[in-house]
Design a protein that fits this description.
Elements lengths: L1 H19 L6 H12 L3 E12 L2 E5 L5 E2 L3 H11 L3 E5 L9 E10 L2 E12 L3 H45 L4 H16 L3 E8 L2 E7 L10 H11 L14 E2 L9 H9 L2 E8 L30 E8 L7 H21 L3 H6 L3 H17 L1 E14 L3 E4 L4 E6 L6 E2 L4 E6 L1 H31 L3 H29 L1 E3 L4 E4 L3 H5 L3 E2 L4 E7 L4 E8 L3 H10 L5 E6 L2 E9 L2 E2 L4 E3 L2 E9 L12 E13 H5 L1 H14 L1
Antiparallel strand pairs: 1-2, 1-6, 2-3, 4-5, 5-6, 7-8, 7-11, 9-10, 10-11, 12-21, 12-27, 13-20, 14-16, 14-19, 15-18, 16-17, 18-20, 21-26, 22-23, 22-27, 24-26, 25-26
Helix pairs in contact: 1-2, 1-4, 2-4, 4-5, 4-8, 5-8, 6-7, 11-12
């Protein structure tokens, strides 16, 4: 028998030592192997492992979490920590187990691993059991040392991430920005979890940000389910200590049964909701500042301005309690301050109940219908010269010479372009050949008639003379066409043609094709405005009801920093189609703006003054016109 329990114990101890050095071994495995080894030496009822440090005593549970024991147990563990072993005979005490063995091993200065074993009976001698328990606690302590080192390294990394998150949180300009920081950066410090931040809107909470989503879909089932779970509870300005982790099967409210089923589909196993208020950051002996002093109807005055929801998935570990406390404590004052700053007059009116809202709407509608405002019609336009000339190609041909640059100043009759036309030159030579042939024929007939006196030749001579006259007139016309291929400036001014050399040189042109524009130096300028067809009624009505010319404000689109004024001088009576739009052309002379460096075709945005109308009509004219069109179409 002795060999049996001893061999079994040594086998279990070897298994424990081998498992304690594995990379993926959790404390539950170590605790199970510890119990299996000690049960080879006796009947063990219960085993608990404790970690004693100067900061306190914690019990290490099989689920990986730490719990704080009662004062009596803490005193017992503290007394036994610095002793190799402590065996208590509890047969005379009110206990179901006759013996309690406490063994310890030193991990570091003032840090001990203590194992407390409740024993109903010994299969081995007591001393052997104590020595075996000492060997076991040494192995558990070595695993715990490595685990603590790894935990501290992870905690240090998470603490660094938490500090960065808190820094960005305090730099956030709005509640939405702060909520996004918490939702997106919080899991880097807390571990694998999903964070949702909900801010208070009246008496309900609405999601502002969710981990992994740039903009949460408010119609998504998971989002609505989470809002239902949160809004079924009241989250006041109590600190986070009042909020505990809850599994989904612990949410027994029948009103959120559907919401819980949706959360279960997303593999959520535990959820925790905590208030984000300034009170969670205040010390215990310091009164919490009032976060929400709203007295609006239907809004509880103690309702927290925002809450945070932390969801854990599958077998993931729950976030470290200390880190979660620090994050919530730092976020509370930030959200409380932003919430107070957003309590504007409009928000108070909206949250103030139906009567206040209706009264404010009635006042606003009254102001919109009574207060007058300037009514203007917007239209596009161009600045053109009143005496500018456009020069077109006189004939089909090819441009051989370009003797100007864009915006060059030219003199009257100065040659600007030279064209060539092989067709005209060929025709000129052909006509000249016909003239020469006809002239020779005419001379021969005239000489024959004079020498022979044939009366029939006189008729042929007259016919040749008429033919020669027609050919000379045709030649004059062709020469005139050739002369027109040399394009000159009709007057002194400025020539406008963008990239003249590149666009015109050696290019074939068709008769009537635009070649350039020229503006005289002392030209007057005007504004050509294209008024939309649907706005013409306002302009004509204002013109007919006013004895003065309608005012026009306009800005040059390339220089919108300054606006100019003029008056509308004329309006065409016809509607034209321009670029697929029905417009009416109007004209206004330019007198108030500097006329230097103006270019023909400069685009402007003009506003034609059409009197004064109510502020509501001016602001919502397009909406009113749309409703009138819809009413006509429907009714």
């Amino acid at each position: 028998m002795q060999d049996s329990w001893l061999n079994n114990f040594e086998t279990r101890l070897d298994q424990l030592e081998h498992a304690s050095t594995g990379p993926d071994v959790v404390f539950a495995d170590v605790l199970n192997l510890t119990g299996a080894a000690l049960r080879c030496l006796g009947t063990v009822h219960d085993i608990s492992v404790w970690l004693t440090r100067p900061t306190g005593i914690e019990e290490l549970r099989a689920d990986g979490q730490c719990s704080t024991p009662s004062d009596e147990i803490q005193a017992e563990i503290a007394a036994a920590a610095e002793k190799p072993f402590f065996l208590t005979d509890a047969a005379t005490e009110a206990s179901s187990t006759p013996h309690v063995l406490t063994v310890s091993t030193r991990l570091a200065d003032q840090v001990y691993c203590v194992m407390r074993v409740s024993i109903e009976g010994f299969s081995a001698p007591r001393q052997t059991f104590i020595e075996g328990a000492g060997a076991v606690v040494d192995v558990v302590g070595s695993w715990l040392s490595r685990h603590l080192m790894s935990t501290y390294e992870s905690l240090l990394t998470a603490q660094t991430q938490l500090v960065n998150t808190i820094g960005r949180l305090h730099l956030s300009p709005t509640i939405n920005a702060a909520a996004s920081v918490m939702a997106q950066d919080g899991p880097a410090a807390l571990g694998r979890c999903r964070i949702a931040v909900l801010s208070r809107r009246g008496s309900r909470y609405r999601i502002d940000a969710v981990t992994g989503v740039r903009s949460p879909n408010m119609e998504a089932e998971t989002v609505r389910a989470l809002e239902d779970v949160v809004n079924r509870n009241r989250f006041s300005q109590d600190p986070i200590a009042t909020s505990e982790w809850r599994t989904l099967n612990e949410i027994d409210d029948p009103g959120v049964a559907g919401a819980v089923s949706v959360l279960q589909l997303s593999d959520v196993t535990a959820i925790r909701v905590a208030s984000l208020t300034a009170s969670s950051h205040a010390p215990d002996n310091t009164p919490s500042p009032p976060v929400n002093t709203s007295s609006a109807v239907g809004v509880p005055p103690d309702l927290a301005p925002a809450v945070i929801s932390v969801e854990v998935f599958g077998n993931s570990e729950r976030p470290n309690e200390q880190l979660l406390r620090q994050l919530v404590d730092a976020a509370g004052p930030v959200f409380a301050k932003m919430h107070r700053r957003q309590r504007t007059l409009l928000t108070r009116i909206i949250h103030g109940g139906r009567s206040r809202w209706l009264a404010a709407a009635a006042v606003l509608l009254g102001l919109l219908s009574v207060c007058p405002a300037n009514f203007e019609i917007e239209a596009s336009g161009q600045i053109v010269s009143t005496s500018q000339r456009r020069l077109f190609a006189p004939e089909n041909g090819t441009i051989d010479e370009v003797r100007f640059q864009n915006e060059d100043s030219v003199l009257a009759a100065q040659i600007l372009l030279k064209l060539s036309s092989p067709e005209l030159e060929l025709e000129n030579r052909t006509v000249q050949g016909d003239i020469d042939t006809t002239t020779a024929r005419l001379a021969s007939v005239h000489a024959t008639r004079l020498s022979g006196g044939d009366p029939q030749l006189s008729g042929e001579e007259a016919q040749l003379k008429q033919q020669l006259q027609n050919l000379k007139e045709q030649k004059a016309l062709v020469e005139k066409q050739l002369a027109s291929l040399e394009i000159t400036a009709p007057f002194a001014g400025t020539v406008f043609r963008r990239d003249s050399q590149q666009e015109l040189m050696s290019r074939p042109v068709q008769r009537g094709q635009l070649l350039l524009e020229i503006v005289p130096a002392d030209s007057a300028w005007r504004l050509d405005i294209s008024i939309p067809d649907n706005a013409m009624a306002y302009v004509t009505s204002a013109r007919d009801s006013s004895e003065e010319l309608l005012p026009v404000r306009y800005v040059i689109r390339s220089a919108p920093e300054h606006d100019w004024t003029t008056t509308l001088t004329s309006i065409d009576s016809a509607i034209e189609t321009h670029d697929g739009l029905m417009t009416c052309q109007a004209t206004a002379l330019l007198t108030s703006m500097p006329l230097t460096n103006l270019r023909p075709g400069t685009t402007v945005t003009a506003r034609i003054g059409c009197g004064r109308r109510s502020l509501g009509f001016v602001m919502f004219r397009e909406v009113i016109e749309f409703w009138q069109q819809a009413r006509f179409a429907w009714f």
